Amino acid sequence: MSFEQLVANLDKSRMLDLILSEPDELEAYYEKYSVVELPERVREIALPRDFDSVVFTGMGGSAIVGDFVRSLLLDRASAAIEVMRDFKLPLHVGRGDVLVAVSYSGNTVETLRCVKEGVERGCYLVAITSGGLLERYASKLGASVYKLPTGRPPRTALA
Predict the structure, then answer these.
(1) Which residue has the higher pLDDT, 28 or 128?
(2) Domains contained in the chain, CATH given
């Protein structure tokens, strides 16, 4: 049996292909989203230098996005970068902070709770999702929404 046949027999969900395609997908998303367009209502006041902190909220594989960004920017970011995997935001998170909500499905209860809490506290919201309630809510608020491709295991949707 060849290696390819062995992989085909053992890897029914094509996880190896998805993992190997990750670098190309990251590069494509970097090119697509390297310039973030802020909604007009916050463009003048919500420049990156004005943010007190950036807080990623997500569960499971979705939180990996925050870990990845934090590790890339740890020695270059002037604002604090936090990654939350919880039902609640820390008390200090509020106005002046960017809340990046990551949920592949868009229906993760913990993430949606943090989004509601963050919006009530005056956070600037950015949503990363393939759809669901998160996309609808963020769009309704006029927040930035970055769409992920559908039809893949959430843990492989880093970009």
Answers:
(1) 128
(2) 3-156 (3.40.50.10490)
